[in-house]
Every structure is written in structure tokens, then in C-alpha cells.
């Protein structure tokens, strides 16, 4: 019998349910459903189990983060607009014992000034931004490496 698959939770923040029609010149034309399918396929290829969850509500994302502790080995999050001001989400991410990877479709550092600061970045293992849908897939590869090496623990 093979090694037990590592579990990863992918969280998508506010307005990401509108991907594919929301500012396609910035975020592309791929829908969230299509992104989740790509995430699922990539996770399977890496020997990971993955669950995806999207919410426009800060509290729902915080609940998901807290519930992930002990159920998953890694968390990948695109906090979207919460990146720039949600101290509550940041505190939840800091409190869990699993490694967290921050993801953004666009390069937040090449956009408007208010988007260039992440309150989330100081409490995550790393951040991947600016590669569109591939940002999520690169984050899954990073998660697999962290979990394989055992370097993912906080």
C-alpha cells in the first residue's frame, strides 16, 4: 500500500467567483470552476488530495482556515482584496500550525499603490503572484515540495 496522500486546502477570496468575466484584461478569461479543475488535476499528478473553497465573506474564510488546522497539511490562499487590509484573516493564518502559501493571479506589486502591500505576506511561507492561473499550479508544486521535505511546518 502506498503513502497516504497529503491534503491541501485552496481558498479563494472575494470576487474570484466572477473570474472569466471580471476585468479579463487583468485576471484572464478562465473561470473559477476551470481553475479548480486545473488545481484538481495538478494535485492528483503530484499525489496530493485537494479541496477548494471560495467565499466573498471574510468570516467564512476565517472559519475555513481554523477548520483546516489538523485536517490538512498545507493551505493555499488567494485572499484577493482581503490581502490588503484583513488583519482578522492574517491573524487566523498566523494561528494555524500548517504552512500557508499566498497566491495572486496578477502581480500585485505592479498594480495600484493600495494593492502593493500584503498584510498576509508576513505570516505565510511564501507568495506567488503574477503568473495568472499558473500561480495556483506553482503553489501546488511548492506545497508538494514542502510536504515531501517536511519543511512546511511553522
What would a concise description of this structure say?
The protein has helices at 24-27, 32-45, 58-68, 87-95, 134-149; strands at 6-12, 48-54, 74-78, 100-104, 126-129. It is α/β, with parallel strands linked by helices. The active site is at residues 27, 104.
Strand order of the largest sheet: 2-1-3-4-5
Helix content: 25-40%
Distance between the ends = 29 Å
DSSP summary: helix tally: 5
> Do you know the CATH architecture?
3-Layer(aba) Sandwich
Largest sheet: 5 strands, parallel
CATH class: Alpha Beta
The SSE order reads EHHEHEHEEH
Percent of residues in β-strands? 15-25%
> Would you tell me which CATH topology applies?
Rossmann fold
Low-confidence stretches: none
Strand-pairing-aware structural class? alpha/beta
Whole-number total of structural domains = 1
Family: Belongs to the type-II 3-dehydroquinase family.
Binding site for substrate: 78, 84, 91, 105-106, 115
Function: Catalyzes a trans-dehydration via an enolate intermediate.
Catalytic activity: 3-dehydroquinate = 3-dehydroshikimate + H2O
Amino acid at each position: 500500500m502506498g503513502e497516504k496522500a497529503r491534503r491541501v486546502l485552496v481558498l479563494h477570496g472575494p470576487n474570484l467567483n466572477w473570474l472569466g468575466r471580471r476585468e479579463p484584461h487583468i485576471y484572464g478569461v478562465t473561470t473559477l470552476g476551470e481553475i479548480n479543475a486545473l488545481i484538481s488535476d495538478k494535485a492528483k499528478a503530484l499525489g496530493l488530495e485537494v479541496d477548494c473553497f471560495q467565499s466573498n465573506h471574510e468570516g467564512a474564510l476565517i472559519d475555513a482556515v481554523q477548520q483546516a488546522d489538523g485536517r490538512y497539511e498545507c493551505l493555499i490562499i488567494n485572499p484577493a482584496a482581503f490581502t490588503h487590509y484583513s488583519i482578522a484573516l492574517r491573524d487566523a493564518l498566523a494561528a494555524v500550525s500548517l504552512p500557508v502559501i499566498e497566491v495572486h493571479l496578477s502581480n500585485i506589486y505592479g498594480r495600484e499603490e493600495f494593492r502593493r502591500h500584503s498584510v498576509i505576506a508576513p505570516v505565510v511561507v511564501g507568495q506567488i503572484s503574477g503568473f495568472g492561473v499558473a500561480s495556483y499550479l506553482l503553489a501546488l508544486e511548492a506545497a508538494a515540495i514542502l510536504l515531501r521535505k517536511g519543511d512546511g511546518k511553522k
